[in-house]
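Look over this one:
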Amino acid sequence: MGRALIGGLLRSGTRPEHISVGEPIAAARETLARDLGITASADNAAAVSGAAVVVLAVKPQDAAAVLAAMAGQWGAQGPLLISVAAGLRVATLQAWCGPAVAVVRAIPNRAALVGAAATGLFAPPPVAAPQRATAEQVFKSVGEVVWVATEDALDVVTALSGSGPAYFFLLAELMAEAAERLGLEGPAARRLAAATLHGAGLLARGGDADLTRLRAEVTSRGGTTEAALRVLEDAGLRASVARALEAAAQRGRELAASHQT
């Protein structure tokens, strides 16, 4: 995710010399510097020294140690910290960073790699409007941004868009498998399923996001699509999707609870 955000920022006009990265793995540092032209350091504290914005893109279990090592770098006017670490609440991050640091949480998804992410953002009331605008600008560089009113809502964002690409990939995978069983050659079935997934996403993204209307426009009365959708409804797809998102949201809440200080 860190590399995806760097790529998005560079494409949107941020100068490479304005970006520095803390990366402990030497090979990864060399690749980042070579491919993206940014500064990469083995020392996180050096990487964030003087930074106005710090993006925390580490595994949740590593976050406490990473932030503790940088605590002395914040100064009286701390940076804006944007965390993409799953399950780490604002209060926990604030406790590790200290009161000088404003914290925004972000839940992007893997499509950031191709500039088509869906990102949910949350900031507590003390975060100023200019800092919120900065966080929004960072994530708009890799796709769509939606602010949520409560931190708890980020668990639902995680279930919906954070994990969501996997749900669509699974559906496309199952469609391809079914088409193959019906007699279509495997490579053709997979290409058609992937292209259909891509095209449907473009249609949804390019309009007013009225998903019910878009579905209706594809569904002719008495036609093939209606026959297929009736089978999915009769099989309980709607209830299954609801249970799946609730399971993902609940798991997000459990992970958050396990990291609370």
